[in-house]
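Shift notes (night). Ran histidine kinase while the centrifuge was going.
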Amino acid sequence: MLKKLQTKFILILMSFVSVILLSVFGIVCCSNYVHDKKDVERSLEMALRLKDKDFSISFGNSRNFNGNSFVIYTDSDYEYMITSRTVWNIYAEDAQSLIESVEHKEDVGVLKKLGFAYKKEKITNYQVNEDTLIPSGYAVAFVDISNMQSSFQRMLIISVQIGSSVLLVFFILSCILSKWALKPVEQAWDKQKQFVADASHELKTPLTVILADSDVLLNHSTESISSQKKWIESIQSEANRMRKLVENMLFLAKNDANRIEISMQNCSLSDICFHCVLPFESIAFEKGIDLIDEVEENIEVHGNESQLKQLILIFLDNAIKYTPKGGKIYFKLAKIQNKPVLTIRNTDSYIPPEDLKHVFERFYRVDKSRKYQGGAGLGLSIASQIAQSHKIKLSVTSDEKQGTEFTLNF
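Came back to this:
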């Protein structure tokens, strides 16, 4: 998929550049062609108006007529009679050949192979000079356009060369840019594949347990309900675990799609922290963990109370899970430089530096160093999403002596 996307990106970019280059070079070539055509038309018109004048003398300083124009006179049967005085040395045979080339053509045209543009004009009783009178015939003006043709061809060749070079450079740049531009997409795609694989793995475990317990119940269907109670409780426990996992995944999916509507309002962060810590005191007591809380009163923030509660519960739940018996959890809410700061630190819990930067990734768990595992590894990822939507800066530090500390700067 990414290869197709990259190819599509390159094709779109190259098409865009090609259209621009064709437009630019097309406009330049067309404007030059129109300009040259007008020059030729003016030269032909001027040559016919002056007819027998000496062009080499009259127009020696003009860029349009400097030896480029001449007029050939013929009778009514297109038989050569005389050529106007010019710097061109035209023999009668050559002049007759030119006349024959235009005899059956339109009044104005171009002889591409010969490199001339021409224009015919009918004349009657025209006195060319003292010795020549044309009762009825034609005056055919010619302009040499061979240099214009060569210049135009050179311009086309140069345009093609420049265009090809620019396209090659842009092709190389587009390949580099496509890799750079699609890098976030590639990372997102890899994360999505990893997410699906991890989710499948996490769902497989409770499903396996539920199916196994169901088989046990079917094989012992004649036994009393009391003897089957442990299998039923196991199924219920795994089903609840699966439901929580699915809810967490749905939350992350909706958050990725920006489909979660959050209603923000002023709420008491002090009260939220107090209500979150209260139920964990009994859990910590049963596990032999000392939970020390210090909550400053009357601290308010702007946010969603339900999500803020979920955010704090995730950190407290993690602290309980990853603190061994005899350890301590420090929970503190205070204002620092007039801004609320919440810290949760649990002792005897260490995350190596190479794993610390991954703690907020989905399904990530530090299996090598954390012996007290629990959950599917989605809690901190959800916490990160909630913090991001509330513009809360999350940071984490870990030390072998002090333990692991999460800081929430509101």
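The longest strand covers residues 116-127. The first helix runs from residue 2 to 50.
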